[in-house]
Amino acid sequence: MALPLAGIKVVEFTHMVMGPAVGAILVELGADVIKVEPIGGDATRRLLGSGAGYFPTYNRNKKSIVLNLKDPRGLDVAKRLVAKSDVLIENFRQGALDRLGLSYEELSKTNTRLIYCSEKGFLSGPYEHRTALDEVAQMMGGLAYMTGPPGKPLRAGSSVIDISGGMFGVIAILAALQQRHATGLGQKVSSSLFETTIYMIGQHMAQMAVTGKPAAPMPARISAWAIYDVFDTKDEQQVFVGVVSDSLWQKFCATFELKELAADPDFKANNQRVLARDKLMPQVRELLRRYTRDELITKLEHTGIPFAPIGRPEDMFDDPHLLASGGLADVTLSDGRTVKLPTLPIEMNGKRVARGTVLASSGEHTVEILRRLGVSTGDIDQLIADAVVEQS
User: Fold this and answer.
1) Using CA atoms, how far apart are residues 148 and 51, in angstroms rounded to an integer?
2) Which of 8, 82, 285, 378 is the most exposed place for a label (fewest CB within 10 A)?
3) Contact 369/63 with Cβ under 8 angstroms?
4) Does residue 42 carry a catalytic annotation?
5) How do the domains of the chain map onto residue ranges?
6) Burial 92-128 (b: 16+ CB within 10 A, else e)
7) Tens digits of residue pLDDT in 333-391
């Protein structure tokens, strides 16, 4: 069965995470995505440290063409690509593509059906001129404040705002595609890092509005449930356990044969347990410390009580659920090595949505794409000789 976005043509001028994440989702859903890279290739390919995983994660299954957009001939190729595309994605600094003549206003003159997605630091307003990063948005928007202990703001342990901002970009693109069915016209859509952060911390803003009290950082919060924490085990591992209803409290007590606690009127209802947390939690910590991590998992597995062993990213390569359910797929890197990386976390018709995962080398599809645009072999050779385009 064809993937849902089969036939949709996308061209992206992106780097780092947020913009590529938009194309990464669209390509997994079946779109044909062409990534335009500068001469020498996207610098994201060469990042070290925490950035080393960006390119293989968010650029799989895309075709790669390398263009010198400062050369009129390279710019002409880009415009011809866009003219044949349904969607354009970009996440460069404000006005960068506009100065090259690749603004929505210019491109929509020749492609009225074009949906032009700009992924930015800020939406329209007083801050729109600023340059933002995932970390800037987390710090500015209150997420870092809520993540770290009081006085020690801490960014989340993943590029959550880049990725979520990319997801909102996809939502806007899909909405615009649907609207195009009715109007026949494309439009410009945008999502941003700062506003994505604000959407995520909206629950804490609402808490302030409802209670009149500011939300405390998560490590210092007063939990809505008494048992909702990380517990040490006998083998010096850790497991999170959350008892979030009165029925689960009874299940918890039955699982661990806690007849006295189950009968104690001070612990009967959730709010009573929260108020008696100082009395209850030492007993629960001592109880769970009697079990090893695996023993505790076995004990809780089929109870319906929320629990989670504390995992690390490297543990996920061998996770039995991911391996059995298609949650990981073999990805062939540009150097020929094969690794397992996460697939799109959705099912359609009961099946995971995934494509054969290949990471293109820089400019791997340059000649193929130029031929598709009708450029002659002689002209292609000249463009390569003049460093207007590159092929791998």
Assistant:
1) 22
2) 378
3) yes
4) no
5) 9-200+326-390, 223-312
6) beeeebeebebbbeebbeebeebbbbbbbbbeeeeee
7) 878 889 999 999 999 999 998 777 889 999 999 999 999 999 999 999 999 999 999 99
Sorted by sequence, the CB contacts under 8 Å of residue 389 that are 6+ apart come out as 65, 66, 67, 68, 74, 77, 363, 366, 370, 380, 383
Q: Two tokens at 180? A: 């195009």
State which fold the 223-312 domain adopts: formyl-coa transferase, domain 3 (3.30.1540)
Average pLDDT, the chain: 96
Q: Which pLDDT does position 221 carry in this prediction?
A: 86
Nearest to 253 by CA among 266, 243, 240: 243
For the record, the structure tokens of 376 come out as 């002659």
Structure tokens at 200: 């995520």
Residue among 17, 54, 10 nearest 36 (CA): 10
Q: What contacts 149, CB < 8 A, 6 or more positions away?
A: 217, 219, 220
pLDDT at site 335: 81
End-to-end Cα separation, the chain, in angstroms: 32
Percent of the chain scoring above 90 in pLDDT:
94
Active-site option among 71, 162, 229, 330: 162
Within 10 angstroms of residue 338's Cβ, the number of other Cβ atoms is 10
- The 10s digit of each residue's pLDDT in 228-277 is 999 999 999 999 999 999 999 999 999 999 999 999 999 999 999 999 99
Say how far apart CA 176 and CA 185 lie, in whole Å. 9
Q: Where are the alpha helices (DSSP H) in 184-292?
A: 193-200, 202-211, 246-255, 259-263, 270-275, 277-288
The domain made up of 9-200+326-390 is a member of CATH 3.40.228.10: no
